[in-house]
Amino acid sequence: MQRLLILCAICLFPASALAADPPEETGYKPLFDGTSLAGWEGGGQPAELCWKVADGTILCTGEKGPWLRSKEQHGDYNLRLEYKLKAGGNSGVYIRVPESGNHHGNGAGIEVQVLDDADGRYRTIKPYQYTGSLYAIAPATKHVGLAPGEWNKLEINCKVTKYHVIHNGVTIVAADETTFPELKGRLTKGFLGLQNHSEEVWFRNLRIGPPLDLPIDPSSKQAAIKAEQLRELLAQPVLEPGTPQREVEAFCEARVVRLPAADAAERKSAEAWKTYIDNLRRKTLDEVVFRGEAAKWREYQGKVEWLEAIEGGEGYKIKKLRFEAVPGLWVPGLLYEPLKLDGKAPIFLNVNGHDGKGKAADYKQIRCINQAKRGIIALNLEWIGMGQLRTPGFAHTKLNQIDLCGTSGVAVHFLAMQRGLDILLAHPSADSTRVGVAGLSGGGWQTIVFSALEPRVTLSNPVAGYSSFVTRIHHYSDLGDSEQTPVDLAAAADYAHLTAMLAPRVALLTFNEKDNCCFAAPHALPPLLEAARPVYQLFGQAEKLHEHINYDPGTHNFLRDNREALYKVIGQHWYAGDSAFSPNEIECEKEVKTAEELAVDLPADNLDLQKLAQKLTQPLPKARPEVERRAKVVQTLRLPQYVVSDAEAKRQSYGAVEIWEWQLKLGDVWTVPAVEFTPPAAKSTVLVLADGGRTAAAEAIEKHLAAGSRVVAVDPFYFGESKIKNKDWLFALLISSVGERPLGIQAAQVNALAWFGKDRWRDLRVEAVGPRSSLIALAAAACNERPIAGLTLHGCHKSLKDVISQGGQVNTTPEVFCFGLLEAADISDLAALAAPRKVEFLEK
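The structure corresponding to this sequence follows.
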């Protein structure tokens, strides 16, 4: 399809772009007689090593050997020939080269490239490496090569230092020393040559005639580069491969909080450890879970409504209920209640992970039924985003809409569990000394977070649900989504801390040996045991820490083997001495019910995560004086202060335009790629960034170069070449969890580049293409009164409230969901902070 489009495009060029052949080619003489290599010789070795005549063509066999050199030298001329390549073929035509064939640098000749341009292996080559280009000097302006196996026409016109290349009838190079100064130092007389690039290539109909007097387009002398060529130039890699991935991993790992060292004061005694953990638990709840409106939700006495009871199976019944996790957001649940309750009974909160069936998942029902048949009061909660709550508004990636409003989105998850536990403990038969929680995957995450931060839990069984943040950095499968990676959690308490927080309560850490989802036992479990064992030993309660690894099936599951491991621990600690208790699962598959049977009526106006966020936006942003607002924005962005500590640049040119490829090192943290285009006598500078990376800004860059402005195209963190290759948005979440903010990093990078170029890039304006880049540019200017002179924003959001109302999600635009940004400032406020500098808002 690509080649078809190229062929069709030829028909669209105006007649002035075509080079007409003289009717009789007066004055041309053949350079190949069709039967021999007469007039040619090998460059330094016998030509026969790799060159031969076949079917009226000159064939390079691709074997080891020399280039083919003409015996005569030529000065000004018009050379015409035809060539044919195999798929991926590569060769070249040497013009005016010395006897050595040198075609690089002053005193050398020139190579005209011959290449199968459309082959995938050449996606990242430089513009001057495509067919017809004067290699390393003047790039071909169009790519019109035919499919492999077809004959292409190539015409090369040399007159003093003026060169034209016509490929399949289309002029693709028109260059002289005024547009490409490198041509001034090249030879104006030398040998012709055909390159041996160790690949088969065929040539025929080679002839040479007097030079034609072809014009150089005057516009090319004005340092104009068209968008098509700009995209090719901008697509060239600046960074070493893998740089963004390595840097984001190192950045996050360095900022994950670590447990106190073995000889630290906190670990000298059980009492010292308890004091440390109590403080850490309080800090995590206050500074991570219950920020903003969540602090009020924490005190809210939500409604609980009991609905119908349905028949369970032998020995238990099921009561349907619904309750408010936060004001207006109802969660359905099922209480599995033993029919015979003599005295106090254990209670168990059962949560589930990312299973669309939610509370109706068969393995979860079986767990609840088995608990009830053992005399345990079991609550089966529906998880946010699953089962009956599996709607777009409950998608976990909407959780960060609440964060944007300055309220902890993770609080919704936590409070759903806490309200569930309140309901269990309110049961008249509840034994508050025997309180358990268990769940798989996302349910395992709920279990560890809730058990660690809720002291009322006395037995915890997270199943394949988490690993240390440090572990996750190196095992991408473990990187969790919004609830797994709450804002600022990794800066307060790692999952290693949360595991150690369980001591001295009963804990069963269950993992699967060959987990095909995440948190596989070999890498996830050892660091957690290493964190928790010394603490349990400190309390003299080592026997309360259990581990279980499932080998059959060993994949992501909470099936019979894992359930029986839980029953065994329950029996050991809650039913010690009871000979009637068995850890073997009680068969109950026939008692498993359908989702319809277990459905719980919910209010028609039930809030979801998005509706909750929209409700939170109503009074935002808060009114503040300008000085306070700027300080609040800086604080909200956690704005780092970066300076360019090292700058490496590679220089090339495109006609009269100097091109600098910059690797800009910001401190010892980030390397930012930038491409600078400097036309002659540039007096102003535009720093350009785009949502689609710097290549997406080609049209904007073309416009500014045509106007004589210098342009610096930059890819800040997460964009273009700075995009993270693996699990990009999950690493963006992790950055927020370690206490930084992606938007703050991006804004600081833009400001660092602006300061770096304040002398080199005078009168610097920023132009952003797309809503995300526009927000970055606005944030940078709002926080820094210098040196950005003004902003032009294409497609900027009118309000951050629109991001929420339109269903924006963190997995597509992670930096937009900066915690508390909407509480601090909306788009209009950021623009006001950028004043008196001009901020120009343009449609897309």
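The two ends are 29 Å apart (CA to CA).
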